[in-house]
Amino acid sequence: MSSANFHEVPVVDVTRDNIVEIWPSLQFSLQQAMFVALDLEMSGIGNRKTLMAKSIDDRYRGLCETARTRSILSIGLSCFCHNTSSDTENISDANLALKFTVHTYNITVLCEDNYTVEPLSLTFLVEHGFDFNKQYMKGVYYHREDKAEKKKDTSKPCLRRLFQQLITNEVPIVFHNALVDLVFLYQNLYTQLPANLSQFTADLSEMFPSGIYDTKFVTEFMERTPASYLEYIFRKRQKDNLEQCLMKEKHILIDFPKYPASCDYVEQRGCSLDSEQNQNVKLCECFSNHGWCALGKNCPNSHDVDAILRKEDVALVNKQRKRNRRKRARPGSESTIGECATVEERVASVTVNDNSNNAGLTGDCSQESSDIDIPQNGEQVQSNVVTKSRCEGHRAGFDAFMTGFTMGTFIAKYGKSVSDNPIKLSDFGIQELVNRIYLSGKDYALQIKKSDFSKPSKGHRIKIQMLKGEIT
């Protein structure tokens, strides 16, 4: 069921116990993806002052030291595959909707090398539901040095091989606030980080020729919303996308694979649009602005992102009313009451009851699509309804989905209409979004490109030549 109003997201939980079974499905998803969104959880991100250093080169050197001493704890991948099914009779409406089938994975990992942990980072993860017992008992092993590669063992599932497939498939990759994740992936799953930032960006430009996208950059430099942390921008784009669907404007539709009931490792992460209308809740100002609060769950004020967005909607309506009153007060001006009503209707239209089951949504908002079966161990499986469970807490997999969904809505908003199949991300003409990485506290982005004054690093040249040799 392709829909702009989805209530939950299936996330495949990958561990040491089931990675062999899931590996064919994971590879299939990567091969079919128009783009892949990624998110990492780490054992720490180092000195916060270093992350905000005035010199970008100093920031990079600090991040390199952090990535060499800390580890990845989990990897989220959300593969957005273009859905080419024609399940609408209205061609003009169909051209407004960009449809994706989305496969999302949460891979719990365990570094076998010694690494540093930061109490603040671990406390944050525990408060948001990260299971460290599960990580140590079932995490998929990896080494910072590619020991499996030296043995030429290509039959066994391997995190490094998964990252290499992202490179060899030349699939566009998407992050939210990309720099830290890119540094950690390079050091932990690729090769030793180069000595300077210009070599690092040159390496990345060769590793990912189809482009790197950062939704944090788009949010800060093009959307210019009041806040830009991931949960906020996802919920805002989720509401806006449903509104655009109802208003017959450009939007995206999401479909998920039908997993068999035997897949007990598929968790359903609830994300229904909130229907509560309590305007009296006191919001935490720090969390509202930054998505973070030092008090955490002990904060007496609300960290509810939906309540934050409702407050902004009310402020927008009030601002529009004042503007219209001023216009009507001018001699000879025409009434603009309809404009104000339209704004209020749009605010109301994205307030959806959790139990509505898409009631009242027609056309592109809720469309039938062909079932997408995911191969298990190389075979097709029958589609069944999986037992649903509310999955709360902080998950790299769901964060990757939020990032990918946000990117999808940006494609619909900023990209040109494309009717050819198959479609590549570059076909949408969104060059202003590609290879620009957000830098905290800076009014410019880090551009991923080769410099005239710096060549790619030696370690990367050896690695990329080896990967290309494996392909041929």
Radius of gyration: 23 Å
Structural category is alpha/beta
Shape: globular
Helix content: 40-55%
Would you count the extended β strands for me?
Answer: 13
Q: List the uncertain runs.
A: 88-92, 335-393
Main sheet? Answer: 9 strands, mixed
Order of helices and strands: EEHEHHEHEHHEHHEHHEHHEEHHHEHEEH
Count of runs of 4 or more consecutive helical residues: 17
User: Whole-Å distance between the termini?
Assistant: 39 Å
Strand content: 5-15%
Description:
- It is built from 17 helices and 13 strands.
- Mean pLDDT is 81; it is low at 88-92 and 335-393.
- With 472 residues, it is of the alpha/beta class.
- The strands form three sheets. Strands 2, 3, 4, 5, 6, 7, 8, 9 and 10 form a nine-stranded mixed β-sheet that branches. Strands 1-11 form a two-stranded antiparallel ribbon.
- Helices cover 41% and strands 14% of the residues.
- 39% of the residues are buried.
Topology, please?
Elements: E1 2-3, E2 8-14, H1 19-32, E3 35-42, H2 48-51, H3 56-69, E4 72-82, H4 91-94, E5 97-111, H5 119-127, H6 132-138, E6 140-142, H7 147-150, H8 159-168, E7 173-175, H9 178-189, H10 197-207, E8 212-214, H11 215-223, H12 230-246, E9 251-255, E10 266-270, H13 285-290, H14 305-329, H15 337-349, E11 366-367, H16 396-414, E12 436-437, E13 446-447, H17 458-471
Parallel strand pairs: 2-5, 3-7, 5-6, 5-9, 7-8
Antiparallel strand pairs: 1-11, 2-10, 3-4, 4-5, 12-13
Helix pairs in contact: 3-9, 12-14, 12-16, 14-15
Notable traits:
17 helices, 472 residues, two-stranded antiparallel sheet, globular, 9-stranded mixed beta sheet, 13 strands, single chain, alpha/beta, 14% strand
